[in-house]
C-alpha cells in the first residue's frame, strides 16, 4: 500500500471558502444610525455677528454676556432696617370639640341592655369564667352604669321596699320565745 500524505483540508464535510462576492451577500448590513451633528464652531462666542432685526436697531450697543452685573455695591456696612413682621393669619374655620349627644336615661338603658359585647361577657361570667384586662374593665363599667340608671329610673328593688317572703320572716324569727316565754 502506498503512503498518503496528510493534508490540512477539512475534507468533504468541512467549511467551504466563500468568494468575496458571496461573503458580501451573506453578511448582515450595518444598522444605520443618525450622524452626530458637527455642533458649533470653536471660538463662536468671540465672533459676535451683528443681527439686523427690529430689536437690534433699537439697542445698537448689544451687551456682551461675559461681562457681569453693573449694579453698584456699597463698601460701607449696611445698617439693618427694621423687619416688618406679618401678623399671623388666623384661620377662618375654628376647631371645636364634637359635643356628645345627650341621651336620656331610658335611651342609655336600652343601649346597655342591647350591647352584644356585654351580653357575651355576661354569659362568660355566668359560666364562672374570670374576666381579665379590658374585658373586666368594660364589664364593671357597664354594670355599674346599669345599676345607676336602674336606681335613677326607680326600677330596682331596694331591700326596704322588697316584698319579704313570709316564711323566711317566720323562720328568721325565734317564735318559741314569744309563745313559750322561755328565756334561756
UniProtKB/TrEMBL annotation:
Pfam families: YihI. The keyword Ion transport does not apply. InterPro entries: YihI. GO terms for biological process: ribosome biogenesis. It comes from the Bacteria. Keywords: GTPase activation, Ribosome biogenesis. The keyword Phosphoprotein does not apply. Residues 18-35 have a biased composition (Basic and acidic residues). One of its GO terms (molecular function) is GTPase activator activity. Residues 1-73 are annotated as: Disordered. This is Der GTPase-activating protein YihI. It comes from Rheinheimera pacifica.
Amino acid at each position: 500500500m502506498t503512503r498518503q500524505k496528510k493534508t490540512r483540508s477539512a475534507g468533504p464535510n468541512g467549511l467551504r471558502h466563500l468568494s468575496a462576492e458571496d461573503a458580501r451577500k451573506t453578511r448582515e448590513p450595518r444598522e444605520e444610525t443618525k450622524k452626530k451633528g458637527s455642533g458649533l464652531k470653536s471660538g463662536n462666542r468671540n465672533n459676535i455677528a451683528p443681527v439686523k432685526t427690529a430689536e437690534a436697531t433699537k439697542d445698537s450697543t448689544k451687551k456682551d454676556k461675559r461681562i457681569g452685573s453693573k449694579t453698584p455695591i456699597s463698601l460701607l456696612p449696611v445698617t439693618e432696617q427694621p423687619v416688618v413682621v406679618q401678623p399671623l393669619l388666623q384661620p377662618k374655620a375654628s376647631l371645636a370639640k364634637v359635643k356628645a349627644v345627650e341621651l336620656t336615661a331610658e335611651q342609655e338603658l336600652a343601649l346597655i341592655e342591647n350591647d352584644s359585647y356585654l351580653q357575651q361577657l355576661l354569659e362568660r361570667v355566668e359560666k364562672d369564667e374570670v374576666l381579665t384586662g379590658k374585658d373586666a374593665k368594660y364589664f364593671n363599667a357597664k354594670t355599674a352604669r346599669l345599676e345607676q340608671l336602674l336606681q335613677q329610673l326607680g326600677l330596682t328593688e331596694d331591700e326596704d321596699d322588697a316584698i319579704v317572703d313570709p316564711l323566711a320572716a317566720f323562720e328568721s324569727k325565734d317564735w318559741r320565745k314569744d309563745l313559750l316565754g322561755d328565756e334561756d
